[in-house]
Q: What sequence folds into this?
């Protein structure tokens, strides 16, 4: 159970305590998806923005999603409360504090510039706000930004977004692709990805969430990504599963998102453990925690319960999250050592 600030108040179980202390990174988190209802109301009041909700209960009632698009409609609308540099800073600070409380040592954070620039907000306002909060939170939790192109908009708009971001690219490490997947395949974005990679960004892409396994192949083959966001529909294609394992392509899986967006309404049928058994570098992440009922620790616990994962599995997932990150090798080794020390000092189950 969480209180209105989103802080857990239950007496923790042993597994709960183990998961939240386990050092990890988070690699699939949309900062706009961390906008808690309370902050939405606070920013709406601060900025004089009208909301279609009268209370937190009404907001929660609206979060019954039939699919990805029904979520995106609400998510883009809510982002209208974010207007000033301080708003973007507050959003990032709140996320980093929650993530740190879940054992996250490093986060690679998606943001959707077009959601803001299309409302007349300067991309510099957005990025400066995020970076000030990121600098304040380090070194307890380090973080980088991944600029996402909205795939329901044309590739030409992605190119314009990249150009607008150029003066700020020292703060951006990666490029991603998100929003409505069906009918918007990765290959449409070949040109903006080519330009982003030329500008020094590391490419990742959402693929195989609602879209078919072929979208995962084109993200690999056309966009050149080595880390796929979601990728869960790979389970339909055994040859692709083999390839992901063989080529050590990472998947950033988000169990509670998959459940809430009806990708796997029954988490007991989720393929995460089958991917692990096939040797894929799978990670667990929260996607849009304010909308899907939990931050990264909650995602570890939910999938552990649904699939009967052991502590050893959970440690493997945390290790994968470090391996699959963009961190330099030296920091990866240090974090793996932290995991080793944590596990060896943690008391055995009663
Ligand atoms: N999929 C695609 N786009 C998104 C998502 C997602 O899960 N969350 C935020 N934007
Ligand atoms: Zn996502």
A:
């Amino acid at each position: 159970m969480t209180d209105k600030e989103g802080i857990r108040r239950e007496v923790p179980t042993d597994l709960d305590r183990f998961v939240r202390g386990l050092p990890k990174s988070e690699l699939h988190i949309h900062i706009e998806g961390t906008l808690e209802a309370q902050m939405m109301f606070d920013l709406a009041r601060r900025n004089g923005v009208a909301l279609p909700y009268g209370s937190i209960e009404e907001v929660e009632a609206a979060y019954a999603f039939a699919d990805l698009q029904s979520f995106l409609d609400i998510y883009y609308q809510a982002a209208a409360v974010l207007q000033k540099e301080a708003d973007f800073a507050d959003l990032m600070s709140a996320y980093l504090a929650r993530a740190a409380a879940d054992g996250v040592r490093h986060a690679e954070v998606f943001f959707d510039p077009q959601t803001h620039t299309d409302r007349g907000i300067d991309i510099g306002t957005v990025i400066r706000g995020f970076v000030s909060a990121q600098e304040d939170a380090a070194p307890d939790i380090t973080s980088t930004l991944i600029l996402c192109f909205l795939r329901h908009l044309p590739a030409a708009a992605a190119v314009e977004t990249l150009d607008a971001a150029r003066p700020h690219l020292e703060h951006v490490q990666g490029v991603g692709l998100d929003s409505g997947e069906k009918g918007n395949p990765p290959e449409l974005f070949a040109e903006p990805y080519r330009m982003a990679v030329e500008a020094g960004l590391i490419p990742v892409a959402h693929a195989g969430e609602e879209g078919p396994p072929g979208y995962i192949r084109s993200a690999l083959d056309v966009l050149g990504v080595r880390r796929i966001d979601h990728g869960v529909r790979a389970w339909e294609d055994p040859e692709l599963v083999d390839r992901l394992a063989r080529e050590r392509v990472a998947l950033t899986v988000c169990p509670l998102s998959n459940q809430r967006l009806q990708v796997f309404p029954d988490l007991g049928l989720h393929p995460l453990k089958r991917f692990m058994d096939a040797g894929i570098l799978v990670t667990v992440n929260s996607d849009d925690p304010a909308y899907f009922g939990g931050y990264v620790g909650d995602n570890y616990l939910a999938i552990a319960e649904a699939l009967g994962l052991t502590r050893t599995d959970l440690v493997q997932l945390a290790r994968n999250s470090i391996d699959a990150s963009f961190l330099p090798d030296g920091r990866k080794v240090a974090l793996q050592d932290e995991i080793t020390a944590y596990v060896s000092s943690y008391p055995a189950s009663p």
Residues 85-101 form the longest helix (17 residues). The CA atoms of residues 239 and 339 lie 33 Å apart.
